[in-house]
Every structure is written in C-alpha cells, then in structure tokens.
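#lab-general

N.A. 3:47 PM
ok so I finally got the sequence cleaned up, no stray characters, all 862 residues accounted for. can someone with queue access submit it? mine expired

B.Y. 3:52 PM
send it over

N.A. 3:53 PM
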Amino acid sequence: MKTVRTLAASLLLMCATARAADDTCALPAAVCAHAARGALTLIGQGAQAAIIVDAQDHPGVLRAARDLQADLGAVAGRPVGLSSADAPHAKTAIIVGTLGHSAHVDRIVRERHIDTHDVQGRWEAYLLQVVEHPEPGVARALLIAGADKRGTIFGIYELSRRIGVSPWTWWADVPVPRRAALHVAPGRFVDAPAVRYRGIFLNDEDPALGGWMKETFGGPNHKAYAHVFELILRLKGNLLWPAMWSRAFADDDAENPLLADEYGVVIGTSHHEPMMRAHVEWERYGKGPWDYAQNAEALRAFWRRGIERMDSHESIVTLGMRGDGDKPMTQGTAIDLLERIVADQRTMLAQITQRPLERTPQVWALYKEVQDYYDAGMRVPDDVTLLFSDDNWGNLRRLPKPGDARGGGYGIYYHFDYVGGPRNYKWINTNQIERTWQQMQLAYAYGVNCLWIVNVGDLKPMEFPISFFLDQAWNPEGMSAERLQRYPSDWATQQFGTEHAAEIGELLTRYTQYNARRKPELLSPDTFSLDNFDEAARVVAQWNTLAANSASLASKLPAAQRDAYYELVDYPVQASANLTAMYVAAARNRRDAALDRPQANAEADEVARRFARDAELARVYEHDIAGGKWVHMMDQTHIGYTGWQQPEKNVMPETQRVDAAAATSANEPRAPARSWAHAANGAMGAFVEHNGYIAIEAEHYARAVASDGIEWRTIANLGRTLSGVIALPSIADASVPENDAPRLEYALQLQQAGDVEVHVVLSPPLDFLHRGGLRFAVSIGDETPQVVTTKLDPTPDAADFAAWEHAVSDNAYVAVSKHRVAAGTQTLKLWRVDPGLVFQRVEIWRGTPPASYLGPPESERR
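B.Y. 4:20 PM
back already:
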C-alpha cells in the first residue's frame, strides 16, 4: 500500500483547495471546482449531495457526519441534508459507514461488489469511492467506508479537507471558503496510517491555555475538551495526553473521558503519571509519601482506582514511576525497585480488566533518568511499548537497534514546548519542521512506528508544527524531502488559498528558522555581537524585512482572513522581530552609555518602546481579533529570564541614560566591524581565504561522493543559516573514511601554509546509537582523515552536559579539528562515518575565531 499512501500525501492539501489542474482533478476521489469525466457533483446548480449514515453506527461516526453536514453546508452556502433513513430521498449522496457496523454500507459493498480487501480489518483504514446506483432512489454516491470507527471518521474529515475546510477553522478562525461548484472524480482511494498512535500532549499550560479554558469554559471540562478532540481527529491523530498542571482530566470532569471515548480519541497520561491517574490527584487523595519502597500499599490502592475508572474506554496505560513532581525517583539506578513496580502494576491491570495484558496498550516512557535504567539493562515484557524521548529540545536521545522487534513496538515522546534547563521555552513557536522531519524520519527508519506524541504546551501557538507532526506521523514515507519543502506553502494554501500561499509559506519558514537559532526566552543583550561581522545588524535587518513583508501581506488579505493571519503568521513574526530588536537596542544602549555617547538615550527610549509594543501585540491577539476569543492565550511571560524558570512578569531590560549636554560622540572609537567577502552567486570555483577565514554553507560542495548505497540530500532551510546536508538512508551502517567512501568535497584557495582549525557546524547530534557519540571525519588535501566524535550528554552531572546545554541553546554544535595545510588550492573532505548527522556549515580559521553567534557570511568563490 505504499503507492496508496504516497497518493494520499499528494492529495491531502492540493485537493482540499479545489485546484483546477486537470491532472489533479482526475486522481481518484479528488475534489475540484470543475468536473473531470465521470465526476460526481457535490455542489452545483440545482444539485447538491445529501449525507446518509446508519443510525446504528458508532456515535463518534454519527457526530463526525454531522460535522461534515455543517462543513458542506458552509462551503455551499445552503443547508445540506443528513439522513439515517433506509429509503433516502436524494439522487446524489455521500454514504458513510463502518464496515461491520453499518448494515447500509455492508449491503452496498456486498451488492455492488465494492473491493474492500485492503480496508477490511486494517487499523484506521478508509475507502473513498464513487459508486453508481448504490441503492434504489440514489443514482450516484460517494462511499466513505471505514475499517473501524476512526477509519470512518478519518474518511469523513478527509472529505472535509478536500472541499476546503481547514482542520484549524475553529482553533485558528480560518474561514471556510464558499464554492459554487465542487465535483468528486471517479475512482477508488484507500488510505491508512503507518504509525498506530499519533497525538499531542497539552502541558506547561499555565497561564495561557489554563487561563483561557477557565475564562471561556469555566475550566478544563468536557466543553473545552470537545474542541480538542475534534481538532485531533481532523488532523488524523488519535491520542491525547491531557493537560496536567494542577489538573486531572477524569477527576475535574467525569464527562471528559466519556466524551473522549465517544469521539474516538484514545486517552493516555504523561510519562510520569502511571496507571491513568493525574499527578495532582495524589495531592488530592494520596496518603503518605510518593515512594513505593515506603508506601506501596497506598500507591497500589491509588492506582487501582485509576484502572477501575478507565473502565472499557480506549486508553494507553503508562507504567513505571518517577519521583514526585516529575523528578528522579531515587539517586542512582534503582532497577530492582522499578521492575517490581512495573510487575505489580501489570498484575493489577490483569486483575481489574479481566483480559490478557497484551490487549491493554501499555507504555514505559524512557524519559530522562529512566533511559539510564534501560541502558543499564532493565527490560519490561514484550507487549509493552517502549517510549523513547528527545532531550526536550527536539534531538532524539536513543533509538532501538535495527531489527529489534517487540510486540508492543516503540514510540517517541517529542517536544515543541518545555519547562526546564537550560531555559523554559513556552511562549511561541520556535520549532523548525525541517528538524522535526529529519529526527522523526530517523526514528521511523529505526522501527519507531507504534506511538508518536508531541508536547505542544498551550496548543494555540503551535498550529503549524502540530499539523506537520501529525501529517508526517500518518505517512512518514510519503513525507519526502520534496514534500517537506512544499509543506509551508501547501499549509498556507489550506488556510488562506492559493493567491499568497508562496509568500505566506516563506514567512512561516523564515520566522521559525530565525526563532530556532536561539529561542526567545534565551535572548539577551549579550546574544548578538555588535562588532563581529555586523552580526546584530544582520539579524535585526532579517527580522525587519520579514516583519515588513508580513505587514504588507496582511493589508492585501480579505478581511475574513485577517484574524487567522494574525494568529498564525503576523503575530509570531511581529512579536519575534520586536523582541529581537529590543534586545539589540539594549545592547547598543549599554555600549554607548559606557562610552558616554548621547545616542544611548535614544536607544533607551527604543527599548522602552519595544517593551510596550510587545504588550500591545499580545493585547491585540487576546482582545481585538476573533471578538476577544483568545483572552489569556498570550499571557506567557518571556522577557526577563535570569535562570531556567520563567519570571513572574515580563521585565524590561535595564537601560542607562547619559547627560546629553556633557556627552561626546567620540570618547572612544568603536571597534571596527569585521569585514567579509560576499558569496559570488552561482560560482563553482574554490572558496577564497579572506582575513584568515573561509565560511562555506554545507550544501555548496564541489562534489558529493555517493557510494555503498549512501546518497547525500540537502534539506532546505534546516539549521541557522541556509540548509542542512544529510546522508541517506538513515539506517545504513557506519562507513570507514577512506578511498571512495561517502563524502562531501569543498574546494579551497588558501593564502599561506600553516595551521588552521576546521569548525563544522552541525545540528545538535545526540548519541542515539549508544556507541559513545556520533562520528564523522575531516581531511584537507592528502592527509589521513581525522575522525571527530561528537560529545553531548543531556544527563545532569555528565561530563558533556555543559556542551549539551551550549549546543541546544545555540541550536548548533561546533566540532573542531586542527590541520596543517599548504598554500594554494586544496580540497577539504567531510566524510560520513555514522548515520544521523546534519551538516550546516564548514568554517576554516587561522588563530582563534572571534566570539560570534552566527559566524561570518559565506566566503567568496572564484
């Protein structure tokens, strides 16, 4: 079914906007504004399809059918009929049902000989097919048939996407476009997910999401969660870890789990909330310490209630135990204790559910120190899913060995939001989908296909990466590097139509790239150098250009789209640009005040103005757009961090003023900016040394040597400057750096002989293979390649912990090797050794390079 999934990926966004290209409209079950030969009319003059559903089908299917009724009616601009009658009164219909649960659909399949061999019994699969004369009174119908409850629901929402309804219509106020005509191409379309469980984790949700829920719905109750459930299903996800800061999903509102089960959303609990009990419930009902060695009986009673309350609702049970407050359970590695805890929990599960353990999905989260237990040899029964984790900053810590199959499979717990060191990042989207793609395709290549879940914080600022994560989870193989590059403009098309999609896609790509360089919470007046290579000026200029482009585009959009545009594009661009400019103004103020320059006062005023504008942008978000729908959603503090934890309120950077009358503009000369040579666009010669350095973007190699089944692939926009270059396939064995082994070659023109340092800039490389660090090799000229081992460890007190903190703060790791070179034309070779590395830049330096965050612009080639 690989070809079917690839087709699904291509149709997912293109057809949703009813593009008129003949080749697209001829694809099976494509929805377009003009009719291909044999197409079925959904909306047209004097004709409109009605929806038919079996009243005996799953409640979640009936509810989704009503959503489709509303969606189709909104697109058509007139009511759409929905019937569960055995004798429908519609010549053209959309017939919806679950195989084995809809007598209506089962009869059509049987009598019209509908092929369901690749749908029946397949997890969450669905079929879209135009059927002639499906039953008396109906001339033609679009059949939506699901293998199971969610398969049918996904088929329904796939049609909603194809007619132009964004999954973000409610959550981001994306307007539904009107269509005078829509037609479904004939043919048969089948789709199903490649990853079994795909979902989001609402976490770190105070003050924003938590405040919004309370203000809007009275708290995290079923009225609020109904919108979360629908969003997950519209995005073709199926799993939720609910909000947990002082909140308990099942205890706060007993209707929450009942409604989730009706919708068809699987409920789990986070990595440190075992046995379907929220952490805060121990504060409410627990007795004694959260310590199994001392208080096992009380903890078992507490957990028993969680499993009893779970009842028959579809759930994934977290096993194990961490310390109180998501801290380590003990000092050291208490394998015997944790093994006993898991065994006792599983005994309890079997007793209460009265079914074989393998029929209750269970997960053991290898988060932080729990991974140490796994590395030290702890194992759990084969039916339990092993949930690996990233380092909380989007870099995978460990993956299974190739071929290590287990009944429960493997999962990944990923982060778009985090509370912890080296600093919280909660305010706004800072996640490059290019890095998410690279890490999650790596995970999938290593066999992680059971569970993908991502911490999305407040949900609202993460619309773009959430969409991407769940789209990739549905079909990792279909999310090719080419589709990744198109994704921002395709997603923009889904929200805003085709006219400005390319421009909006560029804004999405660029603001996330700039924010990913260093997350806003990590910015300070010291981040960007005022002298080396005009770094601060370059960064501010980039942001100013982006902000101006976004503002200009906002003025061109129809009024109906401006709320969604502010939420999804303009606010993150303007707020991020403003914040960066504020910190650079603060840096200039400190420098100029120290030199008693009068411009220090204007810079102090600029800092104050920017600080006030930050608050005003948030006020507009919360009160002026969407009728004040998103009050509190931008309450997250983000200015004035002094440690890893957030400040209680935003604190303006300190500024200084000078006596303007007595000040001088020439007390001390400014340090001259370091000069550079611009890249010669399109040149293919050697990179020329200038002022003792050469800077090269990784993708600008002179030659890429592919061998041993390895090929090189450039991932546009991945990283801090231009792109990332990776070696594929990700699962290939290590290479030996010799002879014709895989490598990238760069032509250099060196001014003199002597010693140089080669600085290779990589995306933070963690030892996911557990071999002591990922390796590559460097050579210049005919020298023997030097093998470089990257050393990063997110474990506190580890020898390489400080290096990890530095790398994730900068979103880059710089690996250094030393070489003795001859003058003249030389070839630098970057050799592949281990899989999984992402090369961003290569810099060659004589002596000590200056303290510069982004490094110099690329050197000239000639």
